[in-house]
Amino acid sequence: MTEKDTYKTITETIEDILFKDKNSKFFGYAFPVLNENEAKEHIENLKKKHHSARHWCYAYKIGTETAIFRANDDGEPSNSAGMPIYNQILSFNLTNVLIVVVRYFGGVKLGVSGLTNAYKTTAQLTLEAANIIKKTINVDYNIFFGYQNMNTVMRIIKEKNLNITHQKMELDCQITISVRKKEAESVFKTFNKLYEINIKKV
Q1: Number of structural domains found in the chain
Q2: Start and end of every Impact N-terminal domain (predicted)?
């Protein structure tokens, strides 16, 4: 069994996707996020933007190999908002994403099934409007070497088409590379067996 080393996420913010049901308005938002603080910031900003709304329900999933998630009904009946939103994140097989659905109450109660459908549909329409991309899960390494070994190191980096994310070229050199997870062990072994060259996981 090959280890999965890719994940799907969205590339940019999606705003103001509108769904209406019995005079209630639901506005969908999707944000790419890397941590919970970013998610909280987006939610707070939306509460300011839509300060007269009734509910700001949301769900997010963050992380690749070990993911954290949260689903919040924000005062709607239990599991009628946050989980339907979260299930759309799962349905699209995404991570590092936050979806917020802002509701303006239209005076007519929708009932639990109506609410569940409205939040699910708004989240779905929002994600359908998003640009979804596949990314690789990467491992970062620092390579330490003397200037005299520069050609050897750079040759391997070129041969293996490795991505350099940082470099410091002096008498003592250091290069940081980002390697796709499934290739990481073989790259580590290649550098590790070389004389006067050290490689360490970041």
Answers
A1: 2
A2: 22-126
Contact 134, 8 (CB under 8 A): yes
Element at 68 (helix H, strand E): strand 68-72
Distance CA 37, CA 75 (A): 22
- State whether 99 and 41 are in the same domain: yes
The DSSP line for 45-61 is HHHHHTTT-SEEEEEEE
Instruction: Give the pLDDT confidence of 76-131 residue by residue, as tens digits.
Output: 999 999 999 999 999 999 999 999 999 999 888 899 999 999 999 999 999 999 99
Query: Which candidate, 196, 28, 33, places its Cα nearest to that of 102?
Result: 28
Q: Which of 85, 115, 134 is the last residue of a domain?
A: 134
Question: Do the domain assignments include residue 1?
Answer: no
Q: What range does the domain containing 46 cover?
A: 6-134
Same-domain pairing of 103 and 154:
no
Q: Which two tokens stand for residue 162?
A: 């490795």
Residues 105 and 148 in one domain: no
Helices (H), 6-81: 36-49
**Residue 70: helix, strand or coil by DSSP?**
strand
DSSP calls for 151-189:
HHHHHHHHHTTPEEEEEE-SSEEEEEEEEEHHHHHHHHH
